[in-house]
Design a protein that fits this description.
Helices cover about 80% and strands about 0% of the residues. By secondary structure, the protein is mainly α. The chain has one domain (about 60-215): Orthogonal Bundle (Tetracycline Repressor, domain 2), CATH 1.10.357.10. Helix 6 (about 85-105) packs parallel to helix 9, helix 6 packs antiparallel against helix 11 (about 190-215) and helix 8 (about 125-150) crosses helix 9 (about 160-175). The longest helix has 26 residues, at about 125-150. The protein is globular, with a radius of gyration of 19 Å. The N and C termini lie far apart (about 60 Å).
Length: about 220
């Protein structure tokens, strides 16, 4: 395969993943046909089988794309050394959740990603089973270790695990409720300034939770 052919193949695969994210997220897996995906991607319908082996494998590729995006944002947690101090751990958590917020609200594929995530976690199936141990669990465990370093708690405790889910939840909410928040705030389409305002609230909430957890230790 020539360099030009390789580039064209990667472009087609990326277009199919974008189309899959949007259509699977909006309509669900069963209600989305390969013909619809191909049309949305501007690709031949046979490209789905050629590059992914079928619709189910494309769905898995979409999930892995999302997981890799979120893992990239959380890379700081995955590579954090053991034994860091409470202040440094808290600052790292703040940076990670700020990165998640930026990715979901400002990146072009933020809406597709959030719709796909919501669909897959509310209707769990083989995709979640495949992605959870490879991406979701390791990232959550890493965030729990940072949370434990920031609060002095056990990283395996229920309080820490739920605290991390709570922090993730507030970030995700601002994506899935974007239209509701924008209407209430009279923002129109939120841009960098509005996301900065949201991030201020997210950071304040995170610091408050970490302080409370530290006092309860």
């Amino acid at each position: 395969m020539t360099q030009e052919e390789t580039a064209k193949a990667e472009t087609t695969k990326a277009a199919l993943i974008r189309a899959g994210l949007e259509l699977f997220g909006r309509n669900g897996f069963d209600a989305t046909s390969t013909r619809q995906i191909a049309a949305k991607a501007g690709a031949n319908i046979s490209a789905i089988s050629y590059y992914f082996g079928g619709k189910e494998n494309l769905r898995l590729a979409c999930a892995e794309h999302v997981a890799e995006k979120m893992a990239a944002v959380s890379q700081m947690a995955l590579t954090a050394p053991d034994g860091i101090g409470p202040q440094e751990a808290a600052e790292m958590l703040g940076q990670i959740f700020s990165g998640m917020l930026q990715a979901l609200l400002l990146q072009p594929d933020g809406e597709r990603i959030s719709q796909f995530i919501l669909r897959e976690i509310t209707q769990p199936g083989p995709v979640l089973d495949a992605v959870y141990p490879r991406f979701v669990e390791p990232v959550h465990q890493s965030l729990c270790r940072l949370w434990a370093s920031a609060t002095g708690k056990d990283a395996q405790s229920e309080d820490v695990k739920l605290g991390v889910f709570s922090a993730i939840g507030q970030v995700v909410y601002f994506r899935i409720a974007r239209e509701l928040v924008s209407r209430r705030m009279d923002w129109g389409d939120p841009g960098p300034d509005q996301v900065a305002d949201i991030n201020t609230v997210v950071q304040n909430n995170l610091r408050a939770i970490l302080r409370t957890d530290s006092k309860r230790n």
